[in-house]
Amino acid sequence: MKPDEIEAKSFAIIDAEAGPHNFAPDAWKIVRRMIHTTADFEYMQMVKISTNAVAAGINAIRKGCTVITDTNMAKTGIRKDLLAGFGGRCECLMADPRVAEQAKQRGVTRARVAVETAAPMMKNGIYVVGNAPTALLHLLEMIKNKAADPALVVGLPVGFVNAAESKAALMETNVPYISNVGRKGGSTVAASVINALALIACERT
Amino acid sequence: MKPDEIEAKSFAIIDAEAGPHNFAPDAWKIVRRMIHTTADFEYMQMVKISTNAVAAGINAIRKGCTVITDTNMAKTGIRKDLLAGFGGRCECLMADPRVAEQAKQRGVTRARVAVETAAPMMKNGIYVVGNAPTALLHLLEMIKNKAADPALVVGLPVGFVNAAESKAALMETNVPYISNVGRKGGSTVAASVINALALIACERT
To answer: What value does the mean pLDDT take over residues A84-112?
Structure first.
């Protein structure tokens, strides 16, 4: 089987096993791709998508926005070719030597400095957190202080310390978000959300 | 909290919630890191580690082996600094233009050509599958035909078409393996296994 055929068969299996659900068609394309990436049907219960978040993400991508990730793994997994088709790009500042240097000088985490450094790129862009609750929490603080203004936050940090809490805090804001309840998440599933949005954006072109 | 402190706290939470288990100390370090990466305790039941696979992996890393991955995401997540400390490195051929060209000419998948191209690097090395069942199935065929001879196979493809089947086939061989039963897996968890092995190798230095 070719990769396309494998994906189509996978989606058919997921549709069949998922059974009835209340996701709107575009939202289901996102959730289905998250399940495809993780083989974890629990995402059907865990995923939370704010009103208009899907439209905000599609519009941002169609306008050639910058997608900023908190991990190079998420950046690696994102279909940068699809973003580039709209004039967009993907950036991750975690491995930027200037970020590392500044974090060291200030005695704060690289995740924090990376979010601050990304603020100018964030306007009309999408911020993707696949790993660091610190990044998401600091982003929320910056949004509150009007220091950052992303079109969409994909908040999917994974782990046992502050991951669930940072996502709960995201869900209390007015910023458009795609996130999940609980500890699960990660770079592969975060990338899958952007890829699902980018593929929907391509269908509309 | 600093990243090290977050990790230590996360491991303490996992230890407490995991409860009693029968993993040997080194195997638990691997499984615990898989849980840390995924927040999925199901790995306690799913993971299968063949006799001597942990020792084979640690020895290979300590000898400066090449770690070959089937995805650039897994390569991105692997602590290449730790491998380099032993003279080792990490390679992924999926994005190699020669692999793409050959796959196109022969009408086969890139995953298949990437495995074949990696065979000469595989002696005493570790092959890591985090995504493509095709890669794992073709590797098993090559091992059977004595065309490949890795010291360890980390077989953790994820998905709905042949992922579980390819891992079941791996578990029927005599090659040292770290794998899991079922559909779950992926690049982040595959990288976490190599990082756990590399950290154990560092402790022994």
So the answer is: 94
